[in-house]
């Protein structure tokens, strides 16, 4: 198998009928970087910057942040990298961050963009480190757990202010700056066109989106087999996101665990996703699926089945049968 995946690395990342799909990897620490070439990823679709904070015993200093981001970009050698601002709070606790209070529902609590907008010093330091590290290169910055569009506007204000500050001091600025939002909270599903217009790109965090759409704790093993990530309502939501991206000319990626399983990656591509980001070990198996996938047939399958009012078999079984037949 490993041999097969190694061979596949040299092949273009296209479906059997020639449609290109970007297979990106998720990362979070410097040790992940060699995987970029080993796995043959097209870039880093999600860099989880909070990991540096989680393995530290105190807040990483601005210089240490900048150094890591620079190392990531150097290792990527021109391949695109999407940095996510720190996604802490919830289940990602920093023992040294004393402001965090005990919460009844941490997944719904003071976390991610909510926390960093309330402690803008944290966000400002991180954004400044990113802007400096990306001098002369592209910066793609992504906000986690966005619930309202106002949060994007607030973050953009901080970003703009940092850009002005650095240019005043004649710093080498990024050649291009893209601001994106993660789509993880269902409120955004009901303002998709506005969302797509408010950002340069969207990345679906399917782990959290599934948790909130189904009202099921992503870490609760008692419930882990109960609801299916390939169930019709969830796939309909994912399709609406992909469609809204096309309609508004806004690039859409998906970077949750869903992207890393060949059967669900197949579904995503059938629903219109042309960029997915996964753990490095999944790139080989997903690419093996991709190169064998007759996409036009899968699109016809979804046209027949996704909106059909009743089905004898669950969607996962139908998709499995589609895959087995081919
Ligand atoms: C997600 O929620 O799908 C995601 C990619 O972010 P994380 O798993 O880090 O919450
Ligand atoms: Mg998430």
List the helices and strands and how they pair.
Elements: H1 2-8, E1 22-27, H2 35-39, E2 44-48, H3 50-54, H4 62-76, E3 81-84, H5 112-118, H6 120-133, E4 138-143, H7 149-168, E5 176-183, H8 192-198, E6 201-204, H9 206-214, H10 232-248, E7 252-254, H11 262-271, E8 275-278, H12 280-291, H13 295-305, H14 315-325
Parallel strand pairs: 1-2, 1-8, 2-3, 3-4, 4-5, 5-6, 6-7
Phosphoenolpyruvate binds next to strand 2 and helix 9.
Describe this structure in a few short sentences.
It is found in: Cytoplasm. Helix content is 46%, strand content 12%.
State the main characteristics.
eight-stranded parallel beta sheet, alpha/beta, 326 residues, 8 strands, binds phosphoenolpyruvate, binds magnesium ion
Give the biggest sheet: 8 strands, parallel
- Stretches where pLDDT is under 50 for at least 5 consecutive residues are none
Structural class: alpha/beta
Q: Give the rounded overall mean pLDDT.
A: 95
Hetero groups bound? phosphoenolpyruvate, magnesium ion
N-to-C series of helices and strands: HEHEHHEHHEHEHEHHEHEHHH
Oligomer: single chain
Shape: globular
Number of strands: 8
Helicity level, as a percent range?
40-55%
Measured on Cα atoms, how large is the radius of gyration? 20 Å
Measured by DSSP, the beta-strand proportion falls in 5-15%
How far apart the termini lie comes to 19 Å
SS field, number of helical segments = 14
Largest sheet strand order: 7-6-5-4-3-2-1-8
Subcellular location: Cytoplasm
Organism: Mesorhizobium robiniae
Protein name: phosphoenolpyruvate--protein phosphotransferase
Family: Belongs to the PEP-utilizing enzyme family.
